[in-house]
Amino acid sequence: MFSIFRSRPTYRKSAFFQGFTDWHCHILPGVDDGVKEFQDALSILEEYDRLGVSDVWFTPHIMEDIPNSTTLLRKRFEELSSAWHGNATLHLAAENMLDGLFVQRLATHDVLPIGIEQRHLLVETSYFNPPVGFHNMLQSIFSAGYYPILAHPERYVYMDENDYTQLHDMGVLFQLNLPSLSGMYGEMAQEKARMLVKKSWYHVIGTDLHRPEALQMLLAKRVVRTEIANAL
Ligand SMILES: [Fe+2]
């Protein structure tokens, strides 16, 4: 099978990805702004197998601008799962934008929780502004019987240390985007990621992978190796 990963980065010798769970990625093809082609998704999963990744949670966007139904996502997941014969275990969840659509879906429990216990919801906001009633929305997640995991908190430009402390004290869990540590989203996200790593406030880690080239870039970044070795 044609592989998009022609060069073999030295990172593959690292043990970091052995047994790694990717808690955030857009590999499920053709459903959001992530991977488009079915074959690309399979190629990425093959590379994950070579790296030793054990579990992959697909977290396609659900938001007013990308109103994926849970039925459609489950169907696509079944299609990809039946074509996958590798070692990595595949799971389906979603990255839920905290917007009006989410409020509707949560009210009927029409959601795709993350984690084997099916008790957590991966949520995000705009990078620039919190949604109206942000904390109330988070509280409504607890009230509905779930725990919110905030995707890539380090990337929100409107958040500072006080905001993180407030969210942490509320019981909101945090998910680190691995590329943040390498500076792939800029210095601000990198510094915030380092701060949150130091505080040990990250609960899970994800790649937030949207396309095959991004994995190559991540694997090629020496700084990631150093940061991970030092910080995690
Ligand atoms: Fe994402």
Main sheet specs: 6 strands, parallel
CATH topology: TIM Barrel
Helix and strand run: EHEEHEEHEHEHEHHEHH
Fraction in beta strands: 15-25%
The counted number of beta strands is 9
The amount of helix comes to 25-40%
The low-pLDDT segments are 1-13
Task: Specify Rg, calculated over alpha carbons.
Answer: 17 Å
Characterize the structure shown.
By secondary structure, the protein is of the alpha/beta class. It is 39% helix and 15% strand. The chain has nine helices and nine strands. It has a six-stranded parallel sheet. Strands 1-2-4 form a three-stranded parallel sheet, with helices on one face. The structure holds fe (ii) ion (FE2).
